[in-house]
Amino acid sequence: MRCMFFCKPKIKKISTSELKEVYLPSKKGNYFLDVRTKAEFSGRSIPGFVNIPLQTLSNHLNKIPKEKEVVVICQSGMRSSVACKLLKKAGYEKVTNVRGGMNRWF
């Protein structure tokens, strides 16, 4: 019996380098989600990312396509980790967290 009750959902993690070199150039099949506040997002963001703040994410799941890989970023990686768990619970299969978030973006 593999993980019937207490398993944590497996969430893929990538570095900001992988985001820049692999994910952003081939946007096909990916949905880029920034879960920081609107103020943080308007101050500095990555082109192609859609801003849905973490505190409102559960109310906007209908905007996020389930058939795409959802790549999630925040400021440090904490909120994006929470967002990834929320997305997994909501039935999203392909969810990726950007380690270090915007703090590591260069």
Structural features:
5-stranded parallel beta sheet; 25% helix; 106 residues; 5 strands; 18% strand
Describe what you observe in this structure:
The chain is an alpha/beta fold and 106 residues long. It contains 3 helices and 5 strands; from the N terminus they run βαβαββαβ. It has helices at residues 16-23, 38-43, 78-89, and strands spanning 12-14, 30-34, 50-51, 69-73, 95-98. The protein has a 5-stranded parallel β-sheet. The longest helix is centred in the last third of the chain and has 12 residues, at 78-89. The chain is globular and about 35 Å long. The model has no long low-confidence stretch (mean pLDDT 91).
**CATH homologous superfamily identity:** Rhodanese-like domain
CATH topology: Oxidized Rhodanese, domain 1
Biggest sheet strand line-up: 1-5-4-2-3
- Beginning-to-end CA distance, first to last residue: 44 Å
Strand content: 15-25%
CATH class: Alpha Beta
CATH architecture: 3-Layer(aba) Sandwich
Task: Decide which structural class fits the backbone.
Answer: alpha/beta
* Gyration radius, in Å: 13 Å
Number of helices: 3
Biggest sheet architecture = 5 strands, parallel
Q: What are the segments in which pLDDT stays under 50 over at least 5 consecutive residues?
A: none
The overall pLDDT, averaged over residues, is 91
Oligomer: single chain
Helical fraction: 10-25%
| Principal-axis shape | globular
Return the string of H and E elements. Answer: EHEHEEHE
Number of separate domains: 1
Structure summary, number of beta strands: 5
